[in-house]
Amino acid sequence: MNTTLRSSLLVFCTWILHADNTLLNVRVLLGSFPLEEVVSIELFSENGVMITGSRDQNKKYFFDDLATVSIKNKNIFINHKQNDSQVLRVTPVNGITEFNGNSYGGTFYLYRTAKTLDIINILPLEEYIYCVLRTEGWPGWPKEVYKVFAVACRSYVLYQIQQARKLKRHYHICATNSHQTYSGTHTTTSMREAVDETTGIFLAYQNEPILAMFDACCGGIIPAQVKNGINFTEAPYLARTYACNYCKSFKIYSWSKEYSLNTFKTTLQKLLPELKTIYDIETKTDRAGTVQKIIISENNGQRHIVEGKKIYSLFPAVKSFAFTCTKKHNKIVLDGYGYGHHLGLCQWGAYYLVDRENWTYKKVLRFYYPETIFMKLCKKKHAPAQNETPTQNSQDATDTDTKPQTQLSGIAG
């Protein structure tokens, strides 16, 4: 490997190492509560909970099982006692905390900002990936598919960790589908094995983790033709120039929904309160087939323009950005393809490639994320002396269908 590439890889190694000493942890934002509202937050652990504050770390609050943190008049209370700490650390005795109906491993931090109290769950990277597979994956699928998802999710969160540091954000990633859906622990064996067998492996472009976007079903859309604000110059791995048609045989590939004219109009009036009638509807798409705007004509000739993304947000039955909107008598019919944003990995396409074509997880990932390489986080053995060059081992991939995987030393796992 050339010296320049080796040097740049080791810079990334150092970035990982300095982040969290020996373990790379993920800070997940579970919720954000306005300080102006009256809120009660319950944290339960059957063997007890301990809370410490940043203002006086020697003062500890112990609870047999349930701890309540509340917000009143912009003040924070722990079981009705005011606490002025900016950060509260919540540690369960048995390692599991129940919050909002879900069970979580790791530690909780309650972080006070100028306007909110943020609930942050901190846990090791690989445990986070395992948990995410339950909510971002599909039950009963082959382990090799879960390996695909594990590497994609790991790449995505490493990218978000890097962005959080650049933006000086106190959390790395959200627990909702604005990033990756995360709802705590589970016990699915095949998902655990998939994470263990891909531990530390992620996709990189120019030796940095990629923004590994994925959706349930791409609908056969060619991502490079999509106009959606993504900078394909910075992320060419998302600008795939060929279609995935492997999801076409599944029911999720296409969808259709009818609305009565009145229901459709009433919903649109949330955006267009001046809308009185719907005479005709025209759909404008980009080359890929994703909707850029909907043009609505009234009986009096007045026209209204609505962005396609706003239609997607307004109507829960709209599953993707690739659809047509048509008026048929007293009904509005929406016909579409795909389930999601049409970028990156297509989950049902990946399932087809593994289950019916026997592709390996590496081959699948290289198909959906062109121009990327595999890299791996490794444990640091020792810090290099001042005049010592850190070592780096290159390992050939066992799969003949992928480029060699680069294994790095000098990184905390």
Structural class: alpha+beta
Reading side by side through the largest sheet, how are the strands ordered?
4-3-8-11-12-1-13
Number of helical runs? Answer: 8
- Mean pLDDT level: 87
Largest sheet: 7 strands, mixed
Poorly predicted spans: 1-22, 382-413
The tally of domains stands at 3
Q: Report the β-strand fraction as a percent range.
A: 25-35%
User: Tally of extended strands?
Assistant: 26
Helical content class:
10-25%
CA(first)-CA(last) distance: 23 Å
How much is the radius of gyration in Å? 24 Å
**Which overall shape is indicated by the principal axes computed on the Cα atoms?**
globular
Oligomer: single chain
Secondary structure elements and pairings:
Elements: H1 3-19, E1 25-34, E2 39-44, E3 49-53, E4 60-63, E5 66-72, E6 75-78, E7 81-83, E8 87-92, E9 97-99, E10 102-104, E11 107-112, E12 116-124, H2 125-136, H3 143-167, E13 173-174, H4 189-197, E14 201-205, E15 208-209, E16 214-215, E17 254-260, H5 261-268, E18 280-285, E19 291-297, E20 303-307, H6 308-314, E21 322-328, E22 331-337, E23 345-346, H7 347-355, H8 361-368, E24 373-376, E25 394-395, E26 405-407
Parallel strand pairs: 1-13, 16-23, 24-26
Antiparallel strand pairs: 1-12, 2-5, 3-4, 3-8, 5-6, 6-7, 8-11, 9-10, 11-12, 14-15, 14-24, 17-22, 18-19, 19-20, 21-22, 25-26
